[in-house]
Amino acid sequence: MRKFKKILVGLDLSPLDEVLIKKTATLARFFEAEKVYFIHVAKDLALPEEVANKYPDLLAPVDEVIEKSITDQIVAADFPSEVTYEVDAKEGGTLDKILRVSKVKDIDLIIMGRKKDLEGSGTLAKRIALRSSCSVLFLPESLKTGDYKKLFVPVDFSSYSLLALEYAQSFNPEPSDIICHHVYEVPQGYSKTGKSLEEFAEIMRENAQKDYQQFVQKNHLPEYPCKLSLREKGTRAAFILEAAKQEGADLIIFGSRGRTDSAALLIGSVAEKLLDVNNEVPMLMLKKKGENMDFLEALFRI
């Protein structure tokens, strides 16, 4: 189940590219990939006319220079020989180009970088995640060594939680290395029941524990450790990220629902906010491939 046969890696010619290429070299073998597409999209690949006229023999076409530079980094990263790869420098709008390539090439996984100290807002990675029809892996600029052993899975006991847990199991079959995390809250107006905050919080905790047990039994899952946390303030996303860091998680895995035809809610408020706040812990956003559908993607089917 952990297989991603076709992988697309988005590069921006920043120092983050080295991190992504090195990590992809390792992950391509782990995911049993058949082919990896390394893509860089620039608004304009043309040299200024006056420069090209003055130095006609000095420079190769810009796209060729970029592709050679990326290829040199791939070779230096000891890319697995059993996995083929393709390097392409394209011109145009980055979002549309990457989405188009992912559709045309039938990509299973897009890998994008997340910047913390390097220049860049990270909005592109988020927009691709929201609109892609396949899973997306976010890798932070700090390159962590070793495998992804401790997996952190936020759960709400939905079918998307099941998707994430089943995939986590394919990563690491040891239940002790997979940590479920469920956030529960005390509803407003609890005081009208005559219960104190502490008393009603315990009621909600017991209810969450029951929901978890039913979820595990219904889906025939192992007894993964499940951390139940009461959220009293702050966003759920920030709460989840802090819990993942406290657990020393190597990877956050969460299932995401697809985009609706009305293009209203894309992947759910919690998942979307996780994309905003997390640039420290690697994160795999799983999608049921092809579930997203919008006007642009519909054009590819015509």
Description:
32% of the residues are buried. The protein has 2 domains: 143 residues, HUPs (Rossmann fold, 3-Layer(aba) Sandwich); 158 residues, HUPs (Rossmann fold), CATH 3.40.50. The longest helix has 22 residues. The chain is of the alpha/beta class and 302 residues long.
In short, what is this structure?
This protein has 302 residues and is α/β, with parallel strands linked by helices.
- CATH level-1 class of the largest domain: Alpha Beta
Going across the biggest sheet, name each strand in turn: 3-2-1-4-5-10-9-6-7-8
Would you report the number of β strands? 10
From the structure provided, what is the oligomeric state, counting identical versus distinct chains?
single chain
Shape descriptor reads: elongated
CATH topology of the largest domain: Rossmann fold
Helix content: 25-40%
Count the helices. How many? 10
By secondary-structure content and strand pairing, the structural class works out as alpha/beta
Give the helices and strands as they follow along the chain: EHEHHEHEHEEHEHEHEHEH
Mean pLDDT: 81
What's the gyration radius in Å? 22 Å
CATH architectural category of the largest domain? 3-Layer(aba) Sandwich
Number of domain units = 2
CATH superfamily of the largest domain, by name, is HUPs
Distance between the termini: 31 Å
Largest sheet: 10 strands, mixed
